[in-house]
Amino acid sequence: MRPLRACLGAAAAVTLAAAGTTALVASNASGATTALSNRWYAAAPYLMPLDNNPPDAAAIMDASGLKAFQLAFVLAPNGGGCSPTWGGTAAVSSDTAVQSVINTIRAKGGDVSVSIGGYGGTKLGQTCADAASTAAAYQQVITKYGLHAIDFDLEEPEYENTAAIRNEIGAAKILQQNNPGLYVSVTTAGTADGTGWFGKQMLLEAKSQGFTPNNFSIMPFDGGFSGAASQTSALTNFNSILQSTFGWDQATAYAHEGFSGMNGRSDTGEYFTQADFQTVLDYATSHNMDRFTFWSLNRDRQCSPVDNNGTTSGTCSSVAQSAWDFATYSVKFAGVTPPTTTPTPTPTPTPTPTSCKTAWSASAVYTAGNEVSYNSHNWKAKWWTQNEVPGASEWGPWQDEGAC
Length: 404
Description:
The chain is an alpha/beta fold. It contains 13 helices and 17 strands. The chain has helices spanning 5-8, 10-25, 38-42, 57-64, 97-107, 124-127, 131-145, 162-178, 197-209, 227-246, 250-255, 274-286, 327-334; strands spanning 46-47, 68-75, 85-86, 90-91, 111-117, 149-153, 183-189, 215-219, 257-262, 264-265, 271-272, 291-295, 365-366, 371-374, 377-381, 385-386, 398-403. Strands 1, 2, 3, 4, 5, 6, 7, 8, 9 and 12 form a ten-stranded mixed sheet that branches. A hairpin with a 3-residue loop joins strand 3 (85-86) and strand 4 (90-91).
């Protein structure tokens, strides 16, 4: 995923990376919630919680119905080493800031996935010695935040490093095995042909290791794309790549395929509007694809001026919109309708009470079919009776007709 680092220069890139890391910390290690459905983790948009003018996750949830967030990014320490950090600067082991964000999301019934890697920065697959040590570093993140989902964002420059990709794919396989039920997505660059040479090599590495995640997702932007038609074409081509690589039929390939878009203006000046998102959403749902997400919630609001002077922003979309317009497409993909006005509940009607018959008398004589009332119930005589209290015996002469 591209947090605009390519546009902002090296110093800004470090700042953005650090910001992205914060997002992940929000999960609660000691109080991990019950997992959401996989459909929600598949729909989680990316969020940088401590940079790019982070929006209030709780406000987004209230306004859109969104329940899941993809927090970005976990990287290797800037100075080297094999321990997880947020953006290369903030150690996961001592984090409290992102933890509080996660706690807020979970307190409202939501959850998070953590994304590792991204565009730029040093990845753990590059600095850890092998797949096992890479997996051990990521396991620290899963354990601390009680994660039910994780995203491997494998792109430049890491996916050009064969050894690093071997470590990342191997780590993903280990985590999948050691954390039953863990939702694992793998995200990589998109091209008009589906994905490029390095993306295809990554798929071949997964095949050689016998690793199958919940999905392989491509990012069809920043590569000469123009609107939804070019994106759905790339998704169709990527489906063919998945089929030929893994020997899957078309339906199986779509069931393991995902889309990760960029809302509004991309880094290279492409524009993707709400209508484009709807078209791709329709494609994804009609083909039973496994994932639909986007970069990013920080950008899911209108710039002022709208076109942001012809530049791409990390804090707004550069297209005309209402706040959280693009989040609603994730909600639709998850199968949940965004909340509107809470309907007024229909009151349960109070039943009209049955009138009571003439009160039972100990001295009266009753024959079969006579009705009386006693202790706020009506009773019917089953045979001749006198001075036998209604209800005194289950086998007595009186049949209970209910309250009155």
